[in-house]
Specification:
This protein has about 150 residues and is an all-alpha fold. It is built from 7 helices and no strands. Helix 1 runs antiparallel to helix 6 and helix 5 runs antiparallel to helix 6. This is 50S ribosomal protein L27.
Length: about 150
């Protein structure tokens, strides 16, 4: 089960990151051109939000079926924190990515509470951009691209 969830989580990440980048660029393009926030802009941002949340759910499932979790149980949290690989997979990657998904959700929620198009683009653009950078910072690149 671990291998199939791992593969799905890895491939879904490409789509989630790509859509998040598109939504971020779209928001900043709308902000810089001072155009109205349209239903198309809403859909782009919402699809990025949905894909990001699905990625989070896949990650949570992966976390609990991961052999790293059993290693952590056997070795203890002190050993996890001393091992950079275990720390990345069991602490840094999940925590930072959950923070990123929270920021995406906050950006989406805050945009709904305002009527001004520029404020909508600004809220989505900045929150999605920060989340995108956080996600990129904690990807285990060596495992993901191999």
């Amino acid at each position: 089960m671990y291998d199939s969830v791992f593969e799905l989580h890895s491939y879904w990440a490409f789509a989630a990151l790509g859509l998040l980048l598109i939504a971020t660029l779209n928001a900043f393009a709308g902000l810089s051109s001072k155009r109205a926030f349209t239903p198309k802009d809403r859909k782009i941002s919402m699809i990025a939000l949905i894909f990001s949340h699905i990625q989070l759910l896949l990650g949570i499932v992966l976390y609990f079926v991961s052999p790293y979790l059993q290693t952590a149980k056997d070795a203890g949290m002190g050993a996890v924190m001393k091992d950079s690989t275990l720390r990345l997979y069991l602490v840094e990657h999940p925590v930072v990515n959950i923070i990123a998904i929270v920021l995406i959700t906050i950006g989406w929620s805050k945009h709904k509470k305002t009527e001004d198009s520029q404020a909508k683009f600004k809220k989505i653009g900045w929150m999605y951009a920060i989340a995108f950078l956080l996600l990129l910072s904690r990807i285990p690149w060596s495992a993901w691209l191999s």
